[in-house]
Amino acid sequence: MKEKIYTIPIQDAFQQESECPVCVMYRKLEENAIHYTIGPGASYMEEDIRAQTDDQGFCQKHFRDLYAYPNKMGLALMVKTHMDKTIKELEKATKAPLPIPNSMFRKKAKPSSPVIDYIEEQEKKCFVCGYINQTFESYMMTIFYLYEREEEFREQFAKCKGFCTSHYKKLFCLAPKYLNKKYLEAFFKELNEIYLENFKRVRDDVEWFICKNDYRYKEEPWKNAKDALPRALTKTGSIIVSSEEE
Ligand SMILES: [Zn+2]
Ligand SMILES: [Zn+2]
Known about the structure:
246 residues, mainly alpha, binds zinc ion
């Protein structure tokens, strides 16, 4: 298979043993994004990057990842100026008229206020998620690009151990957008089969894992059930549990 610089991350992920190669790609992008945000390059000291982190902040998941990274001072600097920005915007928003009491018929309606609007917009933003998503879409496109052009990749795709539910949906949604219609029907058929067959395989492994905790099955072999739970978490929750956490 011909390797081009932009196809390598996709081919690598499909070669790696996992329950979802797209999760593997995403995880790699996430590690790079965290490293870029808080790592030795100190991107947060650049004015334009800092303006973005001030405005966007981070989601819960990525705040945790940033906090786990050994650069507390870098995080403190970013958090401080992000808080400055929050104070400035919310001070402005609180000067607007306060929400009025809901009428009898509109008890469930959300009160309207620039305070709520601003915070709701903020809750959707995360600098790290944004950084990942810039590249993630092009990775997804490359999957379809390889599927159309490389017989060897189609074989690799057919042999993979399926996908998590969320990335199954992603592939399902994007196929009509990026895949030549010559391949589309075969792709859907294959994608559906790979997803369901492998999802059932892991479901069966979890079932056996549960059985193995019952004394009646004590002497039976483990089969593939020992690591069934972390693999099931990939399938259902799109998370890759590292071996230290197992
Ligand atoms: Zn996945
Ligand atoms: Zn995020």
